[in-house]
C-alpha cells in the first residue's frame, strides 16, 4: 500500500519521473494509481502530479490508460505518489464523491 502522506519522507529516494495529470473536462475525473488502485479525484481545471520513485527498469516510469471520466497511471518503478500542483502529497480517497464505491 502507498505510504500515508503525513508519515513518510521520500527525499532520500531517487525520483524517476513526474507527470502532471489535468482535468480539462466539466466534471470530476478519477485518477487511479496502480497497481494498488488508490483513487484521487480531480475537479475541473485541477492538476495532480504523479511521481515515480526508484528504478523502473522498463525504460519508462509510467503507463497510462484512459477511460471516460477516469485515468489509470501505473508506476513501473518501486512505487508512486500523487500530489497537488503545489507539492502537497495527497492520500488515497482525496475528494472522493459520496457513493463512488460501495462500502
Describe the protein in words.
It is a single chain. The protein has 103 residues and is mostly beta strands. The protein has a domain at 15-84. The protein has no helices and 7 strands. It is globular, with a radius of gyration of 13 Å. Residues 83-103 are annotated as: Disordered.
- Spatial strand arrangement across the major sheet: 3-2-6-5
Element pattern in H and E? EEEEEEE
How many separate helices? 0
* Beta-strand share of residues: 35-45%
Distance between the termini: 19 Å
If you compute it from the alpha carbons, what radius of gyration comes out, rounded to the nearest whole angstrom?
13 Å
Structural class: mainly beta
Query: How can the largest sheet be summarized?
Result: 4 strands, mixed
Counting DSSP E segments of at least 2 residues, the number of strands comes to 7
What does the overall shape look like? globular
Mean pLDDT figure? 85
- Give the low-pLDDT segments: 1-6
Query: What is the helical fraction, as a range of percent?
Result: under 10%
Region (Disordered): 83-103
